Amino acid sequence: MKILSIIFVLVFIGSLLIIIFSRSVILLDYLYLFIFKKPAFVHFLWRKPRELSSLDKQFLNHNFPFYKRLPQKKKKVFEHRIISFIADKEFQGRDGIIITEEMKLWVAATAIMLTFGMRNYKLPMLEIVLIYPDIYLSTVTKKYHKGEYNPYMRALVFSWKDFQQGYNIHNDNLNLGIHEFIHLIQINSYKKGDISAVIFTDTSKEIIRLLADETIRENLLKADYFRAYAFTNRVEFLAVLVEYFIESPTIFKEKFPAFYFKIREMLNYNFIGY
């Protein structure tokens, strides 16, 4: 009985120490966030990263300048995240389209590019990726769409023709994949309470407050820089800003540095730096 009592006490003390350690780590994490406005760590891997095939790496180097500019160590993180993301989601074709591995790679790489500065990247508010060959009739709005996020199905929907067109031209600030993923990330951040979600949500609110300033809004409209669709509503404004941030960061930074630095803070990386 004495031995059992000692074991019980040791297990109790061990469990208590684990709880105290976990709470301390969380507290320090939020303290770091308060001081530096970013997570204490992002790309830590608990196990050996999974690597893509040489053909997949070649595809990323050719189609994703973001990936190409990463140092080798970061590329391994990017690849590991892509593999994990694809394994976590269901991909379905509609109207006769057949899902290929290249399609999965395109979609996953877009998601990982946008969440690369975040610790949690799998976006649990997304379960299904639906791909149509062209514009489709939305079951939600009963209108024709190029893409949308359906929160009830936890589904991201794309016209593949328009998704690819977004990458065919790299500097027109129009990218369907980036645009729709930002809508998803925004909703995901509202629903989740991790460090990256807090940063994304708080910074996006700061961006909207900037937009609400009459002088700033007037300057935005006079500059005629952002396409008109950006001013549809605050949700669209945020998504359009990220398209500009990704596709023409240098010009964006020169014209509207306040918005540029807020997007950089929100995504937690400097796109120009990569």
From TrEMBL:
<dbReference type="InterPro" id="IPR010384">
    <property type="entry name" value="MtfA_fam"/>
</dbReference>
<keyword id="KW-0472">Membrane</keyword>
<dbReference type="Pfam" id="PF06167">
    <property type="entry name" value="Peptidase_M90"/>
</dbReference>
<feature type="transmembrane region" description="Helical">
    <location>
        <begin position="6"/>
        <end position="28"/>
    </location>
</feature>
<dbReference type="InterPro" id="IPR042252">
    <property type="entry name" value="MtfA_N"/>
</dbReference>
<protein>
    <recommendedName>
        <fullName>Zinc-dependent peptidase</fullName>
    </recommendedName>
</protein>
<keyword id="KW-0812">Transmembrane</keyword>
<keyword id="KW-1133">Transmembrane helix</keyword>
